[in-house]
Design brief:
Blueprint (H helix, E strand, L loop, with lengths): L4 E9 L11 H25 L3 E6 L4 E7 L3 H7 L5 E4 L2 E4 L1 E8 L2 H21 L4 H12 L21
Antiparallel strand pairs: 1-3, 1-6, 2-3, 4-5
Helix pairs in contact: 1-2, 3-4
Amino acid sequence: AALSRRYVLCEVISEDPRCRQCIEDRAVGLAVREAIGRVHGDYGLACCSISFTVKYLNAYTGTVLLRCRKDFYRLLCSALPFVRQLEGRAQRYPCSLNTLHVGGTIRTCQKFLIQYNRRQLMMLLQNCTNEEERRCIQKSLLSCSLTEEQSQSGDEEDDDGIE
């Protein structure tokens, strides 16, 4: 069997609207590694660096999917609250990472994200002020579905998601 991995779904939270522009794989990866090093030292960083990668990133929604070895995902998760900023274009933007879900496959994280987005949109729908806003959000709600276009990278079903 392939190495057991965990996928950690996070959202980037920042007061600075310009922060979204600098969200890129490299910046997120560096910020997370730096936080792991600060919290767990060289040993923790070495453990977490094995197969650690930023698998998916959506700068518009601030959604980030991190991958690491199953043995060390707790080390990774415990360091995420210590991410304080992202660097991009020689600028530093204060931000934090909020862990939304930890899953055994990319697919379980996708399913969780769809449900999460649907709930967020429902809350927005309840706070709508006009009909145009309401129509836009309803359209977004209808587009929340999982399409069958899977990645060809081979790590879709790394393990069955059971601890």
